[in-house]
Design goal:
about 450 residues; alpha/beta; Aspartate Aminotransferase, domain 1; Aspartate Aminotransferase, domain 2; 2 domains; 13 strands; globular; disordered N terminus; pyridoxal phosphate binding; NHTrfase_class1_PyrdxlP-BS; Asp_trans; pyridoxal phosphate; L-aspartate:2-oxoglutarate aminotransferase activity
Length: about 450
């Protein structure tokens, strides 16, 4: 005879609780989790003394402050991006044409690019920077890897140096330089030191200070150089000064690393803006180059760039560059696996078509020419107003940026009183000036400089 268990008050209570809670397994798990969650939340592997709050990136913080400003008079001179005379982003006409060709290509697909990138892009990027008749190309002692714009190219070079460079593992950068240089190298364990570059008195190049610091650096140091349109100062060595620097660098067996973000955008002439790089290669230097197409194609968000390694001439040069290329491919594979397609396809179309290339050169003349016009106009207006100081440096400098010589206090006053936004060191993007705001800017600068004198 089956024996039945008597009803239990405990069981009845459990049944009642289950019903109230929804009785599902998920509900019961949530009920358990609610009791243990406070204990789990009280511990972390990343307390503030291990992972402190990082400071906001100054440039992107400046952009956010500009966007939040509701003044109709506000002027953005911070961001390093080309703007037309209406303060609008300018899509290069040649980029529009290349985009149309791409979209109408029936064979277009979105498969992976090779690890080293699109060969039609990297080969022409190398020709653009090194020169089509470069001895490095003729002797097949260069390797090119497509990167995530210029930042990615500098990073790839930093990774390669961190892993393989056996000289003095310090990168010497100009004072000042693009702020990201310090972060990129420190993140891979390579410290940076500075060499003098900008002369605050003349607002030009401190060439002797630069040359002597490079001469005094320990043998086989890494020297980071801007081939044209120095960021942030807009001050470049002359070709004769580049030749002197090459002699000093050779005498100390230093290793040059060029970061080229503005080829064709500085003078409007592609060959002139690459002259320093080409001279060093002609002199037989082993070197690295980071190349960006953000500025000169207006492809800021598409991140099209290239990294080039050039080895010294000699009987083993091709074997050496083959080994270097193989290691770069491994580094690339572990970082991004395969580079993005769109920006590189646009650039490749233009660089491989004579008609489109000529139109691109015309677009470069338009951009560089407008910036030169703004330099001439700004200097003239400041001098007409009788603004204290000398302003010839505005036209002596070149490229997107100008180091105005304004102090941090004056910069902050301009922001507060006139809604004009620039970096605290007084660097302005000349592309942010136009015929509609240049009078306003010049008068505002005149006011703060005059009251500070």
């Amino acid at each position: 005879m089956p024996v039945s268990s008597p009803p239990s008050s405990q069981g009845a209570s459990s049944t009642s609780d289950s019903a109230a809670a929804g009785s599902s397994p998920i509900s019961r798990l949530n009920n358990i989790a609610s009791h243990i969650a406070p204990k789990m939340a009280s511990t972390t592997n990343f307390p503030s003394d291990v992972v402190p709050q990082a400071p906001e990136d100054p440039l992107f913080g400046l952009m956010a402050a500009f966007r939040a400003d509701e003044s109709p008079d506000k002027v953005d001179l911070g961001i390093g991006a080309y703007r037309d005379d209406n303060a609008k982003p300018w899509i290069l006409p040649v980029v529009k044409k290349a985009d149309e060709i791409l979209r109408n290509d029936p064979d277009l697909n979105h498969e992976y690019a090779p690890i080293a990138g699109i060969q039609s892009f990297t080969s022409k990027a190398a020709e653009l920077m090194l020169g089509a008749d470069s001895p490095a190309l003729k002797e097949k002692r260069s390797a090119s890897i497509q990167t995530i714009s210029g930042t990615g190219a500098v990073h790839l070079g930093a990774l390669f140096l961190a892993k393989f460079f056996k000289g003095n593992r310090t990168v010497y950068v100009s004072n000042p330089t693009w702020a990201n240089h310090h972060q990129i190298f420190s993140n891979v364990g390579i410290p940076t030191k500075q060499y003098p570059y900008f002369d605050k008195k003349t607002k030009g190049l401190d060439f002797e200070g630069m040359k002597n610091a490079i001469k005094d650096a320990p043998e086989r140091s890494i020297i980071l150089l801007h081939p044209c349109a120095h960021n942030p100062t807009g001050v470049d060595p002359t070709l004769d000064q580049w030749k002197e620097l090459a002699e000093v660098i050779r005498s100390k067996n230093h290793f040059p690393f060029f970061d080229s973000a503005y080829q064709g955008f500085a003078s409007g002439n592609l060959a002139r803006d690459a002259a320093s790089v080409r001279y060093f290669i002609e002199q037989g230097f082993e070197l690295l180059i980071a190349q960006s197409f953000a500025k000169n194609f207006g492809l800021y968000g598409e991140r099209a760039g290239c990294f080039h390694a050039v080895t010294a001439p000699g009987p083993d040069a091709q074997t050496t560059i083959s080994r270097i290329a193989s290691q770069l491919a491994i580094l690339q594979r572990s970082e991004i696996s395969n580079p993005p397609l769109y920006g590189a396809r646009i650039v490749s179309l233009v660089l491989n078509d004579a008609k489109l290339f000529a139109e691109w050169e015309d677009n470069l003349t338009t951009m560089s020419g407008r910036i030169k016009d703004m330099r001439n106009s700004l200097r003239a207006k400041l001098e007409e107003l009788g603004t204290p100081g000398t302003w010839n440096h505005i036209t002596d400098q070149i490229g997107m940026f100008s180091f105005t010589g304004l102090t941090e206090e004056q910069v902050m006053r301009l922001r507060k009183e006139s809604h004009i936004y620039m970096t605290k060191n007084g660097r302005i993007s000349m592309a942010g000036l136009n015929t509609k705001n240049i009078d306003y800017f010049a008068k505002a600068v005149h006011a703060v400089v005059s009251s500070s004198s």
